[in-house]
Design brief:
19 strands, alpha/beta, 3 domains, nine-stranded mixed beta sheet, six-stranded mixed beta sheet, Rossmann fold, 507 residues, binds xanthosine-5'-monophosphate, 25% strand, GMP Synthetase, Chain A, domain 3
């Protein structure tokens, strides 16, 4: 498959370059800037993009790619720091300048090739403190801003381009058009990256493995899709285990079991371990201790299952591409299969190899794969849920009473958001509960009941989040239903802290 390689020089936007390119069906991959040249050549890219980054090319220790990458006769596009790298490499001069941050108007001086079809000017997103003072011989300026006279440059005969702005961010007008010009017209990459193609190749790769696969499924989209792909490839040599830890959303354990049984023919074993988890968490108030106890109990249950139902050779995980990049794990020779031992805290003697069919995909791509594989829409749109479940939404000790309040109140929040059309617009929406109480009056009687906290947030990647400005009438209805339908609750509060400084979950 045709591919574009993006060399990562450390910009917070590097990832986005790949995403934007994949969105128009060309496979793009982020690789470290210092990838060995033999490895880069072996990947056979149709073109290379240098990302932005925080360094200055005139610093001695600035990150540099192998210089042979400039001599491969491949189309090159430098963005921001990458642009300066191209200027510097081909004999131009980069100097410190006044910072240009945010929107600038890019005036197009030559709209052939890279800047074709974008009009006479565009709003471009800038974020730089260095600029090209003198451009190299054989290059020409194709765009400028008020502050950067060489904001876009080209050496057409060698297909080498540099742009000071970021076409990958949505704030740049026609940014995708510029990336398309480079990838489709200049690199001539074919649009071969489709989720149907991904499924076909992944299933074919996995069908070549020997041995049985163990997959823990949570009911979430990633583990479900991983399981379905593996099942397509090896059928009942895959065994899925679903652990009900008693910390799930209301009725979720039944919904997950039903979804698997009604929709998929996979070998599925539900394990009711509610009591084990709740007993293990008794008297524990510290959030990190709760997480540890939940994690360890999962491992014990998994291990017991493997002992009884093995042997297993593989452990399947729903790892996604951003996790792979963030953890700095380099790719093995086969795209979907990485082999190493003792991952995920499982005991050493299990010696399972890890199968990660989704390690090339972004979340939105997983959703597309899920839709093709027939995953019900309800699951596709379900909000993310933390691994330790309600253990992190119940502040203080976990008791049956607080679990009951938390589950019912969260259900009401979800229902009201669905009715009002807000559910799909927000990242997460739930109720949390602690030990704080407030006085209420019911009928003629005074009642001392629990305080419930409603949390509804918007986010793109959970790294930052803003609290949702829900209309007051929806909040009023939620509050009214919670105090009426859950006897133990007298007060309902709405959390208006964003992340940072707060986090999405209370614990
Ligand atoms: P925070 O609370 O850190 O959460 O803003 C960010 C996102 O991660 C989820 N989350 C977890 N997921 N195990 C998980 O699998 C955890 O321990 C955990 N803690 C938080 C949270 O729901 C949010 O989407």
């Amino acid at each position: 498959m045709d591919k574009i390689l993006v060399l990562d020089f450390g910009s917070q936007y590097s990832h986005l370059i790949c995403r934007r390119i994949r969105e128009f069906s060309v496979y793009a991959e982020l690789v470290p800037f210092d990838i060995p040249i033999e490895k880069l050549k072996a990947m056979n890219p149709k073109g290379v993009i240098f990302s932005g980054g925080p360094s200055s090319v005139y610093n001695k220790d600035s990150p540099r790619p192998d210089s042979k990458v400039f001599e491969m006769n491949l189309p090159l596009l430098g963005i921001c720091y990458g642009h300066q790298l191209i200027v510097d490499n081909f004999g131009g001069k980069v100097k410190r300048s006044n910072k240009e941050y945010g929107h600038s108007t890019l005036t197009i001086d030559n709209n052939a090739s890279l800047l074709g079809g974008v009009g006479d000017s565009l709003r471009a997103w800038m974020s730089h403190g260095d600029e090209a003072e003198k451009i190299p011989d054989n290059f020409k300026i194709i765009g400028h801003t008020e502050r950067s006279h060489a904001a876009a440059i080209a050496n057409e005969s060698q297909s080498i381009y540099g742009i000071q702005f970021h076409p990958e961010v949505v704030h740049t007008e026609n940014g995708v058009k510029i990336l398309k010009n480079f990838v489709l017209n200049i690199c001539k990459a074919k649009q071969e990256w489709t989720m149907e193609g991904f499924i076909e190749k992944t299933v074919s790769d996995i069908s070549k493995i020997d041995g049985n696969v163990l997959c823990g499924v949570s009911g979430g989209i990633d583990s479900t899709v991983a399981a379905l792909l593996i099942h397509r490839a090896i059928g009942n040599r895959l065994k899925c285990v679903f652990v009900d830890n008693g910390l799930l959303r209301l009725e979720e354990e039944h919904e997950i079991e039903k979804m698997f049984k009604d929709n998929f023919a996979v070998n599925f074993t539900p394990i009711n371990a509610k009591k084990r988890f709740v007993d293990g968490l008794q008297g524990i108030t510290d959030p990190e201790k709760k997480r540890k106890i939940v994690g360890e109990e999962f491992v014990r249950i998994f291990t017991e299952f493997a002992e009884k139902n093995g042997p297993f050779r593989w452990l399947a995980q729903g790892t996604l591409y951003p996790d792979v990049i963030e953890s700095g794990v380099s790719k093995g020779p086969a795209a979907v299969i990485k082999t190493h031992h003792n991952v995920g805290g499982l005991p050493d003697w299990l010696r399972l190899e890890v199968l990660e069919p989704l390690r090339e995909l972004y979340k939105d791509e997983v959703r597309k794969v899920a839709a093709i594989l027939g995953v019900p829409k309800k699951l596709l749109m379900r909000h993310p849920f933390p691994g330790p479940g309600l253990a992190v939404r119940i502040i203080g000790e976990i008791t049956e009473k607080k679990l009951h309040i938390c589950k019912l109140a969260s259900k009401i929040v979800e229902e009201e958001l669905e009715i009002s059309g807000w559910y799909d617009k927000v990242w997460q929406a739930y109720a949390a509960v602690g030990d704080d109480k407030a006085v209420g009056v019911v009928g003629d009687e005074r009642k001392y009941g629990n305080i419930v906290m409603i949390r509804v947030v918007e986010s793109i990647d959970a790294m930052t989040a803003d609290w949702t400005r829900l209309p007051h009438e929806i909040l009023a209805k939620i509050s009214n239903r919670i105090t009426n339908e859950i006897d133990e609750v007298t007060w309902v509060s709405y959390v208006i802290s964003s992340k940072p400084p707060a986090t999405i979950e209370p614990q």
